[in-house]
Amino acid sequence: MKRPLGKVIVLSVLVVIAVGAFITLTNLGREYIGKNYFDSSSFQQELDEFESALVPLALAVPDIEAVKKNIVVTSSEIEEHRNRYGNLEDQIYSIERNYEDRINSTTTEETSAEGDAAQEKDVENTVRASLIAERDAKIADIKKNFESDEYVEDKIRKEKEEEVDAYFQSVAKAKNHLLNEKDDFNYELKNVETGEVFTNGTIGKKMAFKKVYSSDNGYLKEPNTYSPAINEDYYDGAYRDLSDTLGSRYTRFEGTIAISEASMLSGNRSYEYNYFKTRQLIFYSVIVVGILSAVLFVFQWRKNRKSFIFEKGRAKYESLPIDVQIVLIFVSGFLAILFTEEAMLSVFHYGGYDIPIGGFIIAVILTAATLYQIPWLKESLSTADWKNSLTVHGIKSLEGFFLNRSIGVQTIIMLIVVFFWGVGTVLMASIPELIILWIPCTLFIGIPVLFILLSRMAYLNRIIGKTEEMIRGNDGSEIKVKGRSPIAKLASNVNELRGRVQTSQIEQVKSERLKTELITNVSHDLRTPLTSIITYTDLLKNPDITEEERASYIAILDKKSLRLKTLIEDLFEVSKMASGNIELDKRKVDLTQLLQQAVAEHQEDIDKSGLDYRVTIGSKPIMSYVDGQKWWRVLDNLIINTLKYSLPNTRVYVNLDQLDDHAVFVFKNIAKYELGDDVAELTERFKRADTSRHTEGSGLGLAIAQSIVDLHGGSLVTEVDGDLFKVTVKIPVI
What we know:
Number of helices: 22
Strand content: 5-15%
Structural class: alpha+beta
Helix content: 55-70%
Number of strands: 12
Radius of gyration: 56 Å
Shape: elongated
Largest sheet: 5 strands, antiparallel
Distance between the termini: 78 Å
C-alpha cells in the first residue's frame, strides 16, 4: 500500500488549526465573546489604575499646613535619633577621628591656593581652622542632642516637615503626569461629605464610555490619603511612611467618569480601539476555521483510518517498553500543543500581521508524529506486558534497594551528604564567605561520611575477594566481622557459607568413600551366593553323584537363590525409598500391638539365640497414622539386627513409651563385634558393624528402617557407648 504521507500532513494541519482554535477559545474567549473594547481587560485595568490614582492625587489631597500641624514626635523617635550612631562618647570619638586626619594632612593642594610660601601658610591655617570649627560645631550639636529633648524634637520635626514638602511636591508631579497621560478621561465628581465638586471637562451626551458612581452603583473612594499611586519616579529621595502624619479619611465621591466619542477617533485611544476590534475579528475567524478543520478531520480520519497505519518503524516502536511508548506519544503531543499555542498567540500578539511559519511547521510535524503513534500505541496497549515496563523495573529496583532497609537508608543519607558537600564546595568557590560554614561541615560531616563510605567499600571489596577465592576452591581464612552493619552481616554469612562448603567437601569425600565401599560390598554380597550357585550347578551336572548329594546340592542352591533374591529386593527397595518414589498407605495403627506381634514373630529365634530379651511394652494403646506394612518392616529389621549382632548370653532391651505427642521405640544391646567411631555410617547402605562381614545379611537393614522412618516424618538415632549399641525411633501419635 502506498504510504499516504500527503494525507497525514493535511490531517496534521487540520489538527493544528483545530487545536489552535480550542486553545484560543480557552485563553481568549472571556476577552472577546460578546465583549466590546470597554469590556476588555486592558481597558478595565487602565480604568482601575486611573480610579486608584485620581482620588489621592487630585480629589482628596489634604492641606499641607494642616498636615504639618499634625506632626507628632514621640519619645522613642527622640531616643532613636539620639543614639542612631551610638552613645555620646562613641559619636564624639568618631567625629574626632574623622577630622583628625583631615586637619593634620591639610595642604595647599587641598585649597587649590596659589602664591608664595607665606600666602600658602595662611591659607593652610585658614582651612585648618575651618575644619576645627566644623568639628567643634558637630560635637556641640551631638552634646546638645543628649542634653535637651526639645532640641532633638525640633530637629525631627523639621525633618518631617521637609518630608511632607517632598511628598506634596511628588503628588503635584504625579497629578500632572496622570492628567496629561489620561487626558481623554473626563470626570465630574462630587465629594459626598463636603459637597465639593471636581471636574476636568464637560461630560455631554455623545460619550463612547460612561461610568456612573452613586450609592446604587458604588462610590469612588480611597480610604487612605497616603497612596502608593505616587510612582517612585516622582520622589526626590527615600522617605519614611507618612501614613500617621497625613492621616486617614474615608472619602467618597459620586459622579461620572467618561470618554468622548471624539477621542475614540484619534490618538492612542483610536489605535487601541482598532487594535481590539482587529483581534476580535481574528478571534472569531480562528474559531470558525478551527470548527471547520475539526469537522473535516473527523470525516477524513473515519474514511481513511486504516490507511494511516504505517508498518515501517512499527516493529521498532512496539519493541520499546509500553511506558516508553506512552511517554513518547505524550511528549510529541504536548510539544505539538505547545508550539501550536505559541503560534496562535503570536498571531494575536501581532494583530494577524505576522504568522510564525517556523513554529507552525514544527507543530504540524509533531502532530504528524503523534498521529503516527496513535494506532501503534492502541495495538500495544491491547497486548502490553507491563511486567517488562521501565516503571515496573524501577519499582522492583527500588524495592530491592530497600530490601535491606538499613542499607537503603544509609546509602541515601551518604548520597545526600556527598551531594550537598559538593554543592557547598562549588558555592564556596564563588562565595568565599561561605568558607566559615564549609570548613566545619567538611571536618565534622563531609570527611567522616567519606571515610565511612570508603571503609565500607573496602570492606565489601574484601568480601568479594574472599568469595572469588571460594569459587576457585581456596577456602582461605575467615573474614573478620566488624560491627553490626549489613556488610558485617554479609561477612558473617560468607563465613557461614565457607563453613558449609567445607562441611560439604568433607561429606563429598565421605560419600565417595562410601560409594567405593558400596560397590565393594555389593560385589562381595552378590558374588558369594552367585559363586555358590555356579559351583553347585556344575556339581549337579556330574552324573556320578548320589541322590543324597543331589538333594543336598539342590537345597544349597535354593538357599543361595533366596539369599540372592533378598539382596536384590532390599537393594531395589532402598533405592526406591531414597528417590522418594514410594507411596505410603497410612492408617490408624496401634503401635503397642504392632510391636508385640513383631516380638512374638521372632520368639522362636529369640529362644534359640541365648539372648535375654527384656521387652517393656505398656498395655495402653498408642495410636499413630502409619503404613502398617512398612512400619512392621522397621520393627522387624531392628529386632533382626539385635539377633544378629548382639553378644551371646547378654541382655537386649526393647522399650515402647509415649512422651508428649511422640511414640518412642528404644532398642539396646551389647555388640558382638567392635563398633567404629562413626555411628552415622551404620545407617548407610551395605554398612555392617562387623567389619569382617562374618554374618549373613544385606547390610541394608538400618538403611531401610531409616528411610521408612523419614518417610513417616519421624526420626531414627543411633548411639554407641563402648560396646553398647542403642537405636531410638520417634514417630508422632494422634
